[in-house]
Amino acid sequence: MALHMSSLFLRTLREDPADAEVPSHRLLVRAGYVRRVSPGVYTWLPLGLRVLRNVEKIVREEMDAIGAQELLFPALLPKEPFEATGRWTEYGDNIFRLQDRKGADHLLGPTHEEMFTLTVKDLYSSYKDLPLSIYQIQTKYRDEARPRAGVLRGREFVMKDSYSFDVDAAGLDKSYQLHREAYVRIFDRLGFHYVIVEAMAGAMGGSKSEEFLATAEVGEDTYVHCTSCGYAANVEAVRVPAPSPVGWEDVPAAHAEDTPDTPTIDTLVTHLNERFPRDDRPWEAGDTLKNVVVTLVNPDGTREPLAIGVPGDREVDEKRLGAQVEPAEVEAFTEADFAANPALVKGYIGPGALGLEGSSGIRYLLDPRIAEGTRWVTGADVAGQHVIDLVAGRDFSADGTIEAAEVRPGDPCPTCDHTLSAARGIEMGHVFQLGTKYAEALDLKVLDQNGKLVTVVMGSYGVGVSRAVACVVEGNHDESGIIWPRELAPADVHVVAAGKDEALFVKAEEIARELEVQGLSVLVDDRKGVSPGVKFKDSELIGIPTILVIGRGLADGKVEIKDRRSGERREVAVDDAVAALTAEVTAEVERS
RNA sequence: CGGGGUGUGGCGCAGCUUGGUAGCGCAUUGCGUUUGGGACGCAAGGGCCGCAGGUUCAAAUCCUGUCACCCCGACCA
């Protein structure tokens, strides 16, 4: 049965809601797809629910096509499995927690690794049962510190998550590849531009991980890409190519110099150029070695300082650092921390004080650019003094390297000789080789061919289903409203009765019925007493890709087919309308 | 958690500086006119001005406190 505007539970808004900033949020509310209930929590109204279901349908079809099987876990979970993996504490404030009448702790699932793992453990115990891929489309809950942009980042959201289970790494590779290909098909069908970028595999267990990012200005993720070789990575995962070691034969011995009042890189560089000018070129920030100290807070609450050495022209990128030290959290080093570590001279920290072997005993990690043989100016661990011609490998060493320095457009590509550009994206999907992290924590093992117990190797794969709805709108709208891709639209054809003549309404109903016989879904604007202008505006706002206007032309046996995206209109004979529309819609579906 | 902002009919906003009968547009209801690009007229319903306390003859307006929401940042398998 066709949807009718006269009775549809819908109210379009002429004005933008005050709390909506990004286009998808504005339009989804204005066009009557969603309503906010509380911060980050939204109601799906009839039109919106149709779109959401369409996304789910695409996801199901492609998951089923690779042999994944759908199941459904509860959203309400007991805490015990999350205690077993440590995530009851690790997830911190992001978990919605609640207690039942007996005082037992529960949570609303933010993700379901534990449940999938335990359920496989419950039912399977042989290599013969594997490989296995199972998935669910489930409402997830995360108490985000700051939900934003409507359903783009909610506290309650719909996600497809699947997990693969294999006996070995080779099997995981195969399952991962299958999912990756399925994701390519899903995102192609969803109809927005996206990139596949290398992502952080995580501090534990994971080995390979890629994100599917919808390219969008409003995106929260920054990624870099190389226009030459196709390399693309989330900034968190960018690998800095380490320069080859260089000889230090010509470098004079390191010498400490007085550099009073130079606690910052800027003041230091100015001072160097005034007092220690070089013949070949002036000193620059990039000649200095900046040592930053932070405090790591482990999930169990223990604290440990960490020093990071980066070239002076770069900041430590907190996101990159955070990803490297996960699950520990990073806090700034406070005055109290300095007081507790007298070996550190604020503003003049140098490698002499750092490192497990250094006077402070603080673990010291270097940016890969600080390769063996490179020479630096850096703090002398004495107030008002810096060391010049300090050579890495000759005069100091560290406890390892860390990828924590900021990444900038123009940096060299790690895989070819070109440079990187930066752009923003929205994380829409994530494929992730988990490895044995959860299987080990929850003791998921099967017997192999030799009767030996082996730990199952897992992969995890997510698609943001409700987020996809917003994301599609971000990529498919204009001034007037939404422009749905065919497969997602709440209906195939929007039939508009534009006028007051009763014959228009009769014909609209007749055509709607015939379209439905042809298998198309239809929204009919059968509102009486509503002027054509209002109906046109609403049809553009709502964004069904094909609009059939039955109006003044009907007297001459003509109706008008309008393409929402291009704005093109063409007149067809009223008797040909159904055939023309059917041909248009089916042709478009096959093309996609 | 830090910074900025906003709370006034369903929605968008004005009024607050300078205290004195709560207003506008949209939406809604009725009647009439109108019907190809967000129509017009007349009439109507709907608001403890976020909440609490204070000052005052009198508070949407001034003071104190508090709560909520939005934006930027921090945070975010």
UniProtKB/TrEMBL annotation:
The keyword Ligase applies. GO terms for cellular component: cytosol. CDD domains: ProRS_anticodon_short (cd00861), ProRS_core_prok (cd00779). It comes from the Bacteria. Its main location: cytoplasm. Keywords: Aminoacyl-tRNA synthetase, ATP-binding, Cytoplasm, Ligase, Nucleotide-binding, Protein biosynthesis. Its EC number is 6.1.1.15. GO terms for biological process: prolyl-tRNA aminoacylation. InterPro entries: aa-tRNA-synt_IIb, aa-tRNA-synth_II, aa-tRNA-synth_II/BPL/LPL, Anticodon-bd, Anticodon-bd_dom_sf, Pro-tRNA-ligase_IIa, Pro-tRNA-synth_IIa_bac-type, Pro-tRNA-Synthase_IIa_type1. One of its GO terms (molecular function) is ATP binding. Consists of three domains: the N-terminal catalytic domain, the editing domain and the C-terminal anticodon-binding domain. Catalyzes the attachment of proline to tRNA(Pro) in a two-step reaction: proline is first activated by ATP to form Pro-AMP and then transferred to the acceptor end of tRNA(Pro). As ProRS can inadvertently accommodate and process non-cognate amino acids such as alanine and cysteine, to avoid such errors it has two additional distinct editing activities against alanine. One activity is designated as 'pretransfer' editing and involves the tRNA(Pro)-independent hydrolysis of activated Ala-AMP. This is Proline--tRNA ligase. It comes from Terrabacter aerolatus. The gene is proS_1.
